[in-house]
Prior knowledge:
By secondary structure, this protein is of the alpha/beta class. The chain contains eleven helices and 13 strands. It has a domain at 3-11 and 97-208 and 225-232 and 247-329: HAD superfamily/HAD-like (Rossmann fold, 3-Layer(aba) Sandwich), CATH 3.40.50. The protein has helices at 3-6, 13-24, 31-39, 51-57, 71-74, 79-83, 162-172, 183-193, 296-309, 313-321, 323-329; strands at residues 91-93, 111-114, 121-124, 143-147, 152-158, 174-178, 202-204, 210-214, 219-223, 240-241, 247-248, 258-262, 275-277. The protein has a five-stranded parallel sheet. The chain has a three-stranded antiparallel sheet with strand order 1-8-9, with no helix packed on it. α7 packs parallel to α9 (296-309).
Amino acid sequence: MSKLEKNSIAFYPEVREKVKAYIDSYRKEDNEIIQNFISKGLLEEITPMSYRDQQKITKVLAQEKGEESDYDSDVPVEDEVRFSRRLFNYIKIQDHVQLPPQRDYDKGKKTLFIEIDDLIIHTFIPDENIGYIANAATKDADKTLFLEDATLNIMYYERDYLHEFLEYIDKNFEPILFTTSQRLYADFIIKQFDPEDKIFRHRLYQNSCYMLEKSDEDLLEFIKDINQFLHRPADGDKKQIGESGSEIPSEKRNPKDCLILDTKALNFILNPDNCIVCEEYTAAYAYSQKGLKDRFLLDLIDDLKEFKEAEDVRPLSRTKFGVIENLFSSKLV
C-alpha cells in the first residue's frame, strides 16, 4: 500500500464536527417519508444517498446567487424537499463558469482539477496582531513575498519534488487549476512556481465554487463541484454543429477521465467517484529537521500513472480511497 493510500482518509475532525453538528439537526425526518421513498423505488433502505441521488428527488438543490427562499412560508413543502433538507439547501451557486474545449495536444489525456494551497505549496500570512508568532512551519520559507495590491506579506513554501510533479502532469495530463482562493492571490502565487504559465490549461477560482453558508451557525465554506464541467447522461452523444456544418468542440469533459486533487473532505461530497484524496502540506512535517524530504508528490505521481492507464478513473478511485463510504460514515452526507 502506498503512502498516498495510507493517508487517503483525510477528514479533519474540526471540519467533520462543524458540518456534522448542523446536518444532524436536520436528520429528524419522519420515518413514513423514508418508507414512502422506498416504496416508490427512489431510495434503497440501506443505501446512503449521494448528491446525484438527491438530485433525482428534488431538481434544484442549489439556489442562484442572491436568491432567497423560505420553503416553509413561500411554497408547499413536498415530501421530497423535506427529506433532502440537509446541507444542500444551504448551497448557493456564485457564477456560472464554463471551460474552453480541450486543446488539441491534450486530446486523449485525462483531466486533473488541482488545488494549489496546502497541496503543492503552503503560504502563511502574518496576522497584524500576532505577527509571525502563529507560524507553525518548521522549515525556512522558500520566499518572502509582498502582494502589493492587497498589501499582504506572504511566506511561501514549496512542497518537496514540486517541479518533478509539475513536469509529469504537464506531459501526461490536462491540468486545470481549481482553487477556493481568489484570483488576485492565486495568480500571484502561481507566478512563483510557473512564471511562464505553462502548467495550467485553465484557471477556476473561488467564484467557480459553491458557497455553503448557514449564518445562524457561523458556517461559511467554499466547496467544489466538477460535475458542472462534465457530460451528463442526458447529454447523450449529441454533437453541436455550427453554421458551416463543422462540429463545434465541446467544452464538457468526460466523467470517466476526470479527477479532482484536494486535501479537504468537503470538496469530495459532490465528486465522490472522481477524486484523489491528498495529504495536507503545511511545511510543518517533523522530519524536516532531520534533513528528510516530503515524498508525497512522488507517491502521487505513482498513483497518477495508474489512473492514466485506467479506462475509467471512477472504479479505481472508489477502490483506492472509498470516499463515498467514508463520507457517509463521517455523516458528511
